[in-house]
# Entry
Amino acid sequence: MGGDPQLHNPEDLLITALSSCHMLWFLHLSLNAGIIVMCYEDNPIGHGESAPSGAGRFVAATLRPQITLAPGMDPWAADAVHGKIHDVCFIARSVNFPVRITAQYDFAEP
# Structure
């Protein structure tokens, strides 16, 4: 069952697209808010369940961005940006499961 684990599958691609959409909106809205982002990496996880028949579905996703901010930036202001993204991200607005964000912040060296 299942295909080649070395290749991407549609489930991986959906979670990756969700993560990418979130990142692009985060960068855009952060810029508008005066927050300078130096680096953004994510390792998202999709949470699923399978029925006895084998049919599966996502029940949630967790985006786990590791974000490096410029010195002096406010991580709480950056966190507030995440809360606005679900209203504008096409993919996040299209999925029928909750999307959680657990961002971690570092600061670039001055």
User: Anything to note?
Assistant: The two ends are 52 Å apart (CA to CA). The chain has a mean pLDDT of 94. Helices lie at 10-32, 75-85, 90-94.
